[in-house]
Write a structure and sequence with these properties.
By secondary structure, the chain is an alpha+beta fold. It contains four helices and ten strands. The protein has helices spanning about 35-45, 65-80, 135-145, 160-180, and strands at about 5-10, 15-20, 25-30, 50-55, 90-100, 100-110, 115-120, 125, 130, 150-155.
Length: about 200
């Protein structure tokens, strides 16, 4: 089993996160931010990951530190679990429809963290959730996991659908990228012999 637990405590958040890349999509998520709980539950299910997250954060300020720090921890969990990346497919992509919304995502587990997003989210909030935090989450995830991550909105008008489509699409791209390629299970997927 490719499983990692990350514990991270700062003056702003206290997070415990466990990620199993070879799971069934099961999750137990309690972040103190309801919309993020919903997105992480979808992320686990559509990526085929088992994910447990608990967070106590300074949500009396806003959700920013909680969302960003969970992105950091999830990225660290991917990086630690993948190790030298031996045997993985490395690349994954998905065009995902959700009602009127269409989201494209593409992932390269390159060792170089970069997030390149083009989402046109029409509202500032979904419930109490600040929609700007969607990009903050994915930036933190990509930087700490060492992913090159591209996300493009091809269509969409509903803020909830756009964000949910992004989480589902990225999850499915990552699920593909971290899967083991049976034909190359002993190989590091780079001509350099290392991914860094």
């Amino acid at each position: 089993m490719r499983t990692t637990t990350i514990n991270r405590k700062t003056a702003e958040t206290d997070i415990a996160l466990t990620l199993n890349l070879d799971g069934t999509g099961a999750s137990l998520v309690n972040t103190g931010c309801g919309f993020l709980d919903h997105m992480l539950t979808l992320f686990a299910r559509h990526g085929g990951f088992d994910l447990t997250v608990t967070c106590t954060g300074d949500t009396y300020v806003d959700d920013h530190h909680t969302v960003e720090d969970i992105g950091i921890c999830l990225g660290q969990a991917f990086a630690k679990t993948l190790g030298d990346k031996r045997g993985i497919r490395r690349y994954g992509d998905r065009i995902l429809p959700m009602d009127e919304t269409l989201i494209l995502s593409a992932v390269d587990i390159s060792g170089r963290g970069g997030c390149y997003m083009e989402l046109d989210i029409p509202t500032e909030k979904v419930g109490t959730f600040d929609t700007q935090l969607c990009e903050e989450f994915f930036i933190a995830l990509a930087q700490n996991a060492g992913l090159t991550l591209h996300v493009r909105q091809l269509a969409g008008r509903n803020s909830h659908h756009i964000i949910e489509g992004a989480f589902k699409s990225v999850a499915r791209s990552l699920g593909e990228a971290v899967s083991i390629d049976p034909a190359h299970a002993d190989d590091i997927p780079s001509t350099k012999g290392v991914i860094a």
